[in-house]
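Issue: ligand-bound run for glutamine - logging full I/O for the record.

Environment: standard queue, default settings, no custom constraints.

Inputs:
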Amino acid sequence: VQGRLDLLKQNTNNTVNSLLDILALDLAGKVDAKIAKGETIGLLEGIPFGVKDVYMVQGTLTTASSKLLKNYKSAYTATAIQKLMDAGAIPLVKENCDSFGHGSSSENTIFGAVKNAINPELVAGGSSGGSAVNVAKDYTVFSIGGDSGGSIRQPAGYNHIYGLKPTYGRISRYGLMGYASSTDCVGPLAKSIEDIRIVLNVMSGKDTKDQMTYASETISEKSILNHEPIKTIGYFKSFIENDAIDPQIKSDFLAAIEKIKAKGIAVKPLDFFDPNTLVSTYYTLTMAETASNLSRLDGTNYGNRIEAETLKETYAVTRSENFSEESKRRIVGGNQVLSQGFSDDIYLKALALRDTISERFENNFNDVDIIVSPVTPNTPPKIGKSLKDPLTMYLSDGYTVGFSLGQLPTITVPQGTETGLQITAAKNNDELVLKFANFLK
Ligand code: GLN
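Outputs:
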């Protein structure tokens, strides 16, 4: 811990904007004291980690990188974070991100755009950009991000580290600020598969405070060394044969496929929806869900209330002054697709399409054990470009959002293409994802 703190102190000006509050200054000596007293220490004792600023950690500010919650202090601790602390890990820092998870670049934040760990002129990716950069720069051993449509996988790819979105429901969302409740997932970012495996095991499990959680088995160190169960993998032709993909990412991906074949694994090209259909289905549903989730933030119970003459005006002024342009775009869009006259044509259609997408995933997983894809169609853009062009930003999520709609386990590994390879398995097969990631190492 001391080593990481020293590193953090040397970077107190934090020119990459990845850090918000440093939490653990008084904890560093506690592990040594425990050992000196002969007390048993936990699996993660003394390991410092980062927390995306959308998780409650009691007594700390949890701002969601928003103006609205700039001064909000958590009243309790999220289940996933508590489990890590119970295993001895130390939450060291809160991490900058896109406000309420809305974004793919970590520029939609009141704390300044997070800069890419490899090239600071480029975006860090998002929304868990601070978390990816902190791991890449060794400020934290691992970080806990949140992934509703790619927010762990895409910044992991942009900063050349690992990032896992587990099966939906494997880890409790209690204490994670809700963005899109039907796709929100808690997950780790780290520099090794082994770290990802250990942290996943600690956080997993049924939680009575999140009714979507289920009990899962611990994934052993030995089991991920055995790739034998993986005989056939597939990839979506629609993700590779389109005009939007960066030519370098395409040729790197095809070369990675050839390497996998050379290792004795069969590879099948698969038919699937085009990425733009996945993007429109995802954004229709997640805008509806975020409009509903954020309706509670009207300045009454939480947040930076701005008084006006009437209660109604108070709500209006509080929300319009405090939400970012991007969050407002989503709230307005979400309320529109949910409203009478539009919901049948837009929202219900998207829900039906999501069911078809899930069925197609199931069919595909009858033929293959794993699906691989690039993480993104593009390389990271320069800082300052993305916010001006929200549609391009949404379309850049085309390879990650489908797997979120399917609630599937999926990991970014930092190889194959400039922004990594994405490895996905059928629901509850998180172990298979780690096996294949380890096999490609
Ligand atoms: N970029 C996607 C979005 O803006 C995903 C964000 C996320 O996973 N939180 O919705």
